């Protein structure tokens, strides 16, 4: 009689629940600073996070993922506060750094340096404090890989990519995890969530510079699930077997977080159910989504002018000024996910461009999967 592999049997019966909170931009009161073009409300970061943690404590989750931008701008006090708070939770938490968490290669009077990050979060994935990426078996048969997408060039400019050493390490880890369900977490987007994102000057900075290299590795290993942040929108994107599930920022409209349930049916097929939730009120911000949506609208004009005057539209400023008022809530609607745009008053080229951001499938049908859906995993 052939011997049964316990690990494979367990994987066939995998069932677990977990949550994702992205881009919380934690800011203690004495560290908060404002910028006139900022779309997010760092002021609500801590009370909003506390509400979410209270809710998650009641949800019987197995673990929590935070895919980067944990702090306002890498401040030591903010990192220390968050690490302490997350270590008090009754379930495991895993994090990766975002560009705001390590804004400089070396530490200074304002923020920590890149290599400092694992020392703050050694209980939250980083068993090796000398390495900026990690892997851990979070449940029997489930392997989490946390990647670092923050690099710096010779001039000190921050880049969004994976270094070659990390890619080599990743291939080795995936080779050793062939019999497991693999979850990957990284801050920068791996699959395009917006039309032309990897080619547009305003969109590509949210993409991983070497996303094709990572996607090739993941596809070859049969990895289906990547969890990202950075873009501050609710979106589920798919490319050649890989789902990139990006979660909007806790501190910007619509203040979302997600709860997932992975279940395995009797035939061994795996399904991932996605539920999205929103923080609707914190002390002093009783109607939080409405206020943050209006803030985003109030500050949208320069952003929309830039979008209209750059490629592919390249409109003269005078023409852009005429269209910008109709786009007051454009980014807020994208951030919320599952929106269907209609701009019948725009000239044909502009109408096609902006309506392409609608939540539709390749055949033009509505595909409302950004907030609540169930994905069949190959």
Automatic annotation (TrEMBL):
InterPro entries xrefs: Calcineurin-like_PHP, CNP_phosphodiesterase-III, Metallo-depent_PP-like, Pesterase_cyn
**Name the UniProt record assigns to this protein:** Putative phosphohydrolase
Task: Recite the UniProt keywords alphabetically.
Answer: Hydrolase, Iron, Metal-binding
What GO molecular function annotations does the UniProt record carry, in alphabetical order?
Answer: hydrolase activity; metal ion binding
Keyword Metal-binding annotated: yes
Q: Cross-referenced PANTHER family, in alphabetical order?
A: CYCLIC NUCLEOTIDE PHOSPHODIESTERASE CBUA0032-RELATED (PTHR42988:SF2), PHOSPHOHYDROLASE (PTHR42988)
Provenance organism: Allocoleopsis franciscana PCC 7113
Instruction: Spell out the Gene3D superfamilies in the cross-references.
Output: 3.60.21.10
The chain positions of domain Calcineurin-like phosphoesterase read 16-233
Per the similarity annotation, which family is this? Belongs to the cyclic nucleotide phosphodiesterase class-III family.
SUPFAM superfamilies to which the protein is assigned, alphabetical: Metallo-dependent phosphatases
């Amino acid at each position: 009689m052939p011997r049964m592999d316990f690990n494979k049997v367990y994987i066939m019966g995998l069932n677990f629940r977990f949550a994702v909170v992205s881009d919380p931009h934690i800011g203690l009161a004495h560290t908060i600073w404002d910028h006139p073009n900022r779309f997010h409300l760092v002021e609500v970061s801590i009370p909003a996070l506390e509400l979410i943690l209270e809710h998650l404590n009641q949800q019987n989750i197995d673990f929590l993922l935070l895919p980067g931008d944990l702090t306002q701008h890498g401040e030591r006090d903010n990192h220390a506060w968050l690490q302490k708070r997350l270590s008090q939770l009754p379930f495991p938490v895993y994090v990766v750094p975002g560009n705001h968490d390590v804004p400089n290669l070396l530490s200074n009077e304002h923020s920590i340096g890149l290599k400092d990050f694992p020392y703050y979060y050694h209980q939250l994935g980083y068993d090796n404090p000398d390495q900026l990426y990690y892997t851990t078996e979070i449940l029997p048969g489930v392997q989490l890989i946390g990647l670092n997408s923050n690099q710096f060039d010779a001039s000190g400019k921050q880049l969004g990519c994976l270094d070659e050493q990390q890619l080599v390490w990743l291939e080795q880890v995936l080779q050793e995890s062939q019999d497991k369900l693999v979850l990957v977490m990284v801050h920068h987007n791996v699959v395009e969530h917006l039309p032309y994102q990897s080619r547009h000057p305003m969109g590509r900075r949210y993409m991983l510079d070497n996303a094709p290299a990572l996607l090739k590795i993941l596809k070859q290993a049969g990895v289906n699930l990547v969890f990202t942040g950075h873009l501050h929108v609710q979106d589920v994107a798919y490319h050649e077997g890989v789902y990139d599930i990006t979660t909007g920022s806790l501190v910007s409209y619509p203040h979302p977080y997600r709860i997932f349930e992975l279940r395995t049916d009797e035939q061994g097929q795996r399904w991932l159910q996605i539920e999205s939730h929103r923080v609707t009120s914190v002390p002093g911000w009783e109607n939080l989504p409405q206020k943050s949506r209006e803030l985003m609208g109030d500050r949208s004009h320069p952003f929309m002018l830039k979008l209209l005057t750059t490629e592919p539209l390249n409109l003269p400023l005078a023409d852009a000024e005429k269209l910008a008022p109709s786009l007051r809530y454009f980014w807020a609607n994208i951030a919320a996910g599952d929106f269907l745009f209609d701009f019948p008053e725009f000239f044909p080229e502009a109408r096609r461009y902006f309506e392409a951001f609608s939540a539709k499938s390749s055949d033009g049908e509505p595909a409302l999967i950004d907030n609540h859906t169930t994905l069949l995993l190959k």
